[in-house]
Amino acid sequence: MGLTATISFCRYITAGEFSWRRGHRTLYKTKPNLTKNKKKKRLAMEDELEGLRAHFPLSFGKTSNVSAPTEAIHNATRRTDVATTEAEVSSDFATKHSNSGKSEFGFPSLSSSSETWVRSVRGPNRNPNSSSLAPSNDAVAMGRPPPPSKPTQEEDDGVLMGPPPPPKGLVNSNDSDDEDDMIGPPPPPPAAVDSDEDSDDDDANDNEENRYQIPLGKEIQLKGHTKIVSSLAVDSNGARVLSGSYDYTVRLYDFQGMDYRLKSFRQIEPSEGHQVRSLSWSPTSGQFLCVTGSAQAKIFDRDGLTLGEFMKGDMYIRDLKNTKGHICGLTCGEWNPWTKETVLTSSEDGSLRIWDVNNFLSQTQVIKPKLARPGRVPVTTCAWDRDGNRIAGGVGDGSIQIWSGKPGWGSRPDIYVGNAHTDDITSVKFSSDGRILLSRSFDGSLKVWDLRQMKEALKAFEGLPNNYPQTNVAFSPDEQIILTGTSVEKDSSTGGLLCFYDRTKLEIVQKVGISPTCSVVQCAWHTKLNQIFATFGDKSQGGTHILYDPTQSKRGACVCVARAPRKKSVDDYQPEPVIHNPHALPLFRDAPSRKREREKALKDPLKSHKPEVPMSGPGHGGRVGTTGSSLLTQYLMKQGGMIKETWMEEDPREAILKYAEVAVKDPKFIAPAYSQTQPKTIFAKSDDEEEEEKEGDTKK
User: Which segments within 579-619 are labelled E, that is strand?
Assistant: First the structure.
């Protein structure tokens, strides 16, 4: 029974057929003699599936295109000068070997000395008739060669195994037996001896170039600022980058979250209307310090949220040690490399202050630099050493002062170098071993100092234009290279450069062009990423260049360059919602405005009860007009003497008393109420009447 069922099932499969219908990969098996009812059910089911698909967007279920290989992406970010150099080298190599009659390939994984040795061992005419199945001439033999065997006529046309035989001119004809039993490597050919000097020169040049291992092959740009980028900070792990600009903003970049578009995930404005002058990460990379042109520094967390703002001092207090904070704009700031609660700031008020991030109300230490004359000289820059025990400050008078953080230490510097530079100092930097100090200044120089002997600088590199007070100097990860940026001068055709100097030899290593029109301000060489950061910009643009090499650098730019933006999936699909606005109903509508009706009523004199304006000019509407002074009739009567104005010549007392008789005979208002009880009014006589009475008495 089971065998019969199995055979019938196999026949059913064999007789079946596959069908592709309407883009759906529907696998169904049918017999050649299907009934019409089954076909109708199948078509109805497919129509139902088509109806369900109409509810999804057209892009649902489509496969994405294959992403480009990482090598092609890195080639797109190759620097132009490096690509040009490689093209020239390849063309020179092709021209050099064009006369040999056969193609030669280099050894990218071998040094020049090893490559020369392999070519000399291989010989100029080795295996001219090698077949396609035999190994190529470029294969390098590894290990001991096999024992020699007598070659036959057929083997002569094949591939030669082991080292080649010595030249015929170096072997005697009598020693025929020794030719087959030769032991050891063959002597070098004569052509290799002649090229020893050239190979030595090439080896020296290659060793000199490979000694520094500067990652300059590829380049990307972090854009977004509208003015020059004046500050830069990369956390210890190389995951996030901070860039501050003269456009008053700070942008946060995350390599793990960025794609090839290189956009910042957050933008903040620490202090409105103040330039960003310095940024510094904490030792744990959980917080960062932001120093702006205001007198108050701020602390932000890793995501850009404000944690606190330091206190501002009283500007009317003369002694800076008695104030609770800076009273002028800040110039620089740096986090202690070991203590996560301590930060250092410098200001234009002529002081350095040490703060505790747990107490924003007052500083813990005030440092006043030593001055040749009394007054206030701004402190332009400051820095910690690697252990966080010493502080270096650059003062506006060109001096460098260093303080040691010993118990009970004060403002008197332990090391004082007067006139270290002829202009303001823009940056100071300690080496990790505590022996070297670097300083950068507005005078266009970079000086290297030995902290054990600070009377004179070890070396002064001149000709480095500097137009920005935030131009810094930095070390390479192994601290064998010193790097700094240059500014663009007004009448110069040279753009912004990134200069590399050898710390041991104290000489120039290389100059790399960053921008033909913009200045280079901040630079950094990250230890873990092995990538170089350089900020640039001018009055209209700003950004950060990142130089890297895919073979030497790790993470950072290598991660985000090859990452495509996230594509929308089915879960991201959301239909457009229908918004019901309750205020659109008549019940919730606001009352219509009566403003126009009120304005119209104010213009109507009857509704607004506006008083009549006095007539000026000729009369109209039944009203008598007026002239400049009075009516014409009044004017004529005054001139003819018919109207006399006697009030200016009349005595006020007589004018009042002439109504006395009328008031007695016809009293009004209050007088009738007191008519019976009111005493008789007696008026005083005039002086003339009194004099007449006295004269009459004397005559009598």
Answer: none
